[in-house]
Amino acid sequence: MLDLNGLRFHYQQKGSGPDIILVHAVTSNMSVWLFSNIMDVLAKDFHVTAYDMRGHGASDAPASGYTSADMAEDLRGLHLALNLGPAIIVGHSYGAVVATHAAVLYPAMVRGLILSDPYFPGLADLEPNLADMEGWRDVRAALVAGGAELGPDIDFTRLFQVVADLTPEQKQHFSQTMGESSLRWLLQLPRLAKTTCGRDVFAPAGLTADRLRGIQQPLVALYDEHTSFGATRAFLQDSVANITIETVPGARHLAPLQSTDAFSQLVQKHGRRISQMGAGPPAQPALEAMGAP
């Protein structure tokens, strides 16, 4: 556990070599990297750090502060406290937004980015049919079939409260419909019901299209074969100077779990490539820009 600005964060580390940091999706936690064995695979080449974002896993859940800018500041604090070098940051879904925001705000901290199926709130106009995403449709359908009330639009604030209010019978129905693993995921959500997380994660928080265009670090976008974010992928392809885009076969937004081997191999391949680009420790002015003493 690590204390950062009055909050406790849960993290684990493994391996040696260049630093790589794993940032999970909102409503997930760092166990996604552990149980899928991705952390072990990467530890063959890297010093790997995984952590639970605020409000997730074993980290504290404050009432507010869940925008990508807030969580990028958490990532910066973790990076400094653990005395890590310039790091490759791997982010899945909203974790990819956090990773990208950290690269924009604290460029000396980030050697490169590997993003898994990212959707950016600052590009929301490109993806007007977000509620059609398969994962959301499945969860919504299972909850509604069990008697919960969810509107047609994606509303995480409402989702968190609905899950907090589920009866034992409704939980059993969800388990029978979606499976025990999905129920375990669902039961993490009530602790977020009294926070601003559901609203914050859809705020651009300054990560605009222009700031995305200005990214200078190597960026790898691993889009799932069945991604819902084709327009975002096209924007990144056309707008970011130093970008590589690959497809993760068989995945539907949850590549670390749905296509674990292919995802791990892609992250390992591009991590090795980025780490060999010759980026050394930043000069002192860059360290000062990172907030180091």
Compact summary:
The protein has helices at residues 31-35, 38-42, 68-81, 94-105, 134-145, 156-164, 168-178, 180-186, 197-200, 209-213, 230-239, 255-258, 260-275, 284-289; strands spanning 2-4, 7-9, 11-14, 19-23, 47-51, 87-92, 110-116, 219-224, 243-248. By secondary structure, the protein is α/β, with parallel strands linked by helices.
Key features?
7-stranded mixed β-sheet, 293 residues, alpha/beta, disordered C terminus, single chain, two-stranded antiparallel sheet, 15% strand, 14 helices, 9 strands
Secondary-structure blueprint of this entry?
Layout: E1 2-4, E2 7-9, E3 11-14, E4 19-23, H1 31-35, H2 38-42, E5 47-51, H3 68-81, E6 87-92, H4 94-105, E7 110-116, H5 134-145, H6 156-164, H7 168-178, H8 180-186, H9 197-200, H10 209-213, E8 219-224, H11 230-239, E9 243-248, H12 255-258, H13 260-275, H14 284-289
Parallel strand pairs: 4-5, 4-6, 6-7, 7-8, 8-9
Antiparallel strand pairs: 1-2, 3-5
Helix pairs in contact: 3-4, 5-7, 7-8
What this model shows, in words?
With 293 residues, the protein is of the alpha/beta class. 41% of the residues lie in helices and 15% in strands. The chain has 14 helices and 9 strands. It has helices at residues 31-35, 38-42, 68-81, 94-105, 134-145, 156-164, 168-178, 180-186, 197-200, 209-213, 230-239, 255-258, 260-275, 284-289, and strands at 2-4, 7-9, 11-14, 19-23, 47-51, 87-92, 110-116, 219-224, 243-248. The strands form 2 sheets. The protein has a 7-stranded mixed beta sheet with strand order 3-5-4-6-7-8-9, sandwiched between helices. Strands 1-2 form a two-stranded antiparallel ribbon. β6 (87-92), α4 (94-105) and β7 (110-116) form a beta-alpha-beta unit. α7 (168-178) packs across α8. The longest helix is centred in the last third of the chain and has 16 residues, at 260-275. The radius of gyration is 18 Å and the shape is globular. The two termini are 22 Å apart. Residues 279-293 have low confidence and may be disordered.
